[in-house]
Amino acid sequence: MTEIAYISVGSNLNNPFQQVKSAIDKLKIADNICIKAISGCYLSDPVGPKNQSKYVNSVIKISTRLSPNQLLKKLHEIEDVHGRIRNVRWGPRTLDLDILLYGSRNVNTKTLTIPHPEMKIRNFVLTPLADIEPDLVLPDGSILSSLLENSQLKEVVPILPGDIVEKIG
């Protein structure tokens, strides 16, 4: 059975835009993953330590036959290929791939929480997610467009003026 999932992609080290593009390219050729849509890219301030560069962020919509844990493993493999080092919480990183949503499932284990526990308070996730799924309703009944309308969060800035959402398949 295939499921629809949404993945956030972010980077603020070693040519962040290229890191994001490369990660998406790797997902395009991954077994049991089919990319359905890719948001535009946005620039945002870091969460956590402030002595780091701004982030490039995007969101992709996929269909997959992988379980949530298998998908997480695949995302970690791609992060590792990009030199991801996990030593400072919310610190700078070459690549950060997070599962935001996986169908309507709720997962809460030691290694994985879906929906992503902080997605509703992060405009760098909500804004690109709205690019590809503006009418999305989250598993808890929250409406994405309402979350954005009522947001008091920091703004995110589109990186490529005129960049339009890429619809695939």
Describe it for me?
With 169 residues, this protein is of the alpha+beta class. It has a single domain (3-167), classed as 2-Layer Sandwich (Alpha-Beta Plaits). It has helices at residues 16-28, 68-81, 123-132, 144-149; strands at 3-11, 33-38, 42-44, 55-64, 96-102, 107-108, 113-114, 157-158, 166-167. The strands form 2 sheets. Strands 1, 2, 3, 4, 5, 8 and 9 form a 7-stranded antiparallel β-sheet that branches. A two-stranded antiparallel sheet has the order 6-7. Strand 6 and strand 7 form a beta hairpin. The radius of gyration is 15 Å and the shape is globular. The two termini are 18 Å apart.
Briefly characterize the structure.
The protein is an alpha+beta fold. It has helices at residues 16-28, 68-81, 123-132, 144-149; strands at 3-11, 33-38, 42-44, 55-64, 96-102, 107-108, 113-114, 157-158, 166-167.
Key phrases:
two-stranded antiparallel ribbon; globular; 25% helix; Alpha-Beta Plaits; 169 residues; seven-stranded antiparallel sheet
Count of alpha and pi helical runs:
4
Given helix and strand content, the structural type is alpha+beta
Detail the poorly predicted runs.
Answer: 161-169
The assembly state of the depicted protein chains is: single chain
Radius of gyration: 15 Å
- Based on Cα principal axes, name the global outline: globular
How would a crystallographer describe the biggest sheet?
7 strands, antiparallel
- Named at the architecture level, the CATH assignment is 2-Layer Sandwich
Estimate the mean pLDDT confidence. Answer: 87
CATH class: Alpha Beta
Q: How many structurally independent domains?
A: 1
Q: What is the CA-CA span between the terminal residues?
A: 18 Å
Share of β-strand residues: 25-35%
- Give the SSE order as H and E letters: EHEEEHEEEHHEE
What would the CATH topology be? Alpha-Beta Plaits
What percentage of residues falls in helices of 4 or more residues? 25-40%
The CATH superfamily bears the name 7,8-Dihydro-6-hydroxymethylpterin-pyrophosphokinase HPPK
